[in-house]
Amino acid sequence: MKQFYPIGQAGTPWSENEKETWLAQTEIKRSYNDLVIIKIDALRDRFQVEQYGALSINSERYPLFGVRNKNWHEDKPVVLITGGVHGYEASGVQGALKFLDTQAEAYSTEFNFIVTPCISPWGYETINRWNPFTVDPNRSFHPDSPSEECAQVMAYVHNHSQNILAHIDLHETTDTDESEFRPALAARNGEDYIAGNIPDGFYLVGDISNPTAEFQTAVINEVRKITHIAPADEDGKLIGEKVVQEGVINVPVKKAHLCAGFTNAEFNTTTEVYPDSDNVTDEECNDAQVAAILGALEYLKNCR
After folding, report:
1. For residues 290 and 271, is the Cβ–Cβ distance under 8 A?
2. How many domains does the chain contain in total?
3. Is the Cβ–Cβ distance between 94 and 273 less than 8 Å?
């Protein structure tokens, strides 16, 4: 097997030594405090801001926050919005914060909101998919999770509600998925790296056991006002999965232990913004995440 990644030996899974080498090469590239915590603090007069935990690698630098509407009533349906499961996917974090700042109050007469804007703050600062221990949080939402990011947010959400109507998990698919993160994954596992394709545009990942096609369509139609929807490739697929409707693939989210599957929400979806397009700005990517949430909420309003 040809060597394709600078850490480890091709065909051999990483030991703790390789994982420590990987961690030693990471560096802080942006500020969680300046770009996230300050924005969360600015919401305190309008929302309930709660610290639900912290990361053990540096508990003072990486506190974990959830945000809920102040006019919380048990008889209203609960909508969960999660961002920053993969810390490097910036628009998920900033989109969740922008939704809180600009739209959440208008919808809080009808819905309760639980919003966790940045589940993986170390990953946000170092622009990484993994946590410091080479664990992918978005494959780790299950009991006895090896990811403290997952364990702490699951406990927080379940503490506030066992009955989630909808869960919208905000993500990106970036060019670095192929240039860095998927090669690193293959190297860590001692597998060969097989190159894939990055979809050119926005798409959704639905739940194969709960596809909610009309709900997904409502989200896509709102997002297309902001950015282009990813077309299927020549095989009718996106990231190797069959396109079941425009801009939508379905996967077994619970079996894969994805964030969007850790509740029993009646409606769930994972957004995938494409920030590396020449046709979008960072702010438009944030707006696309907000649009996805609004498309979901308008659908939920009209179907109840």
Report:
1. no
2. 1
3. no
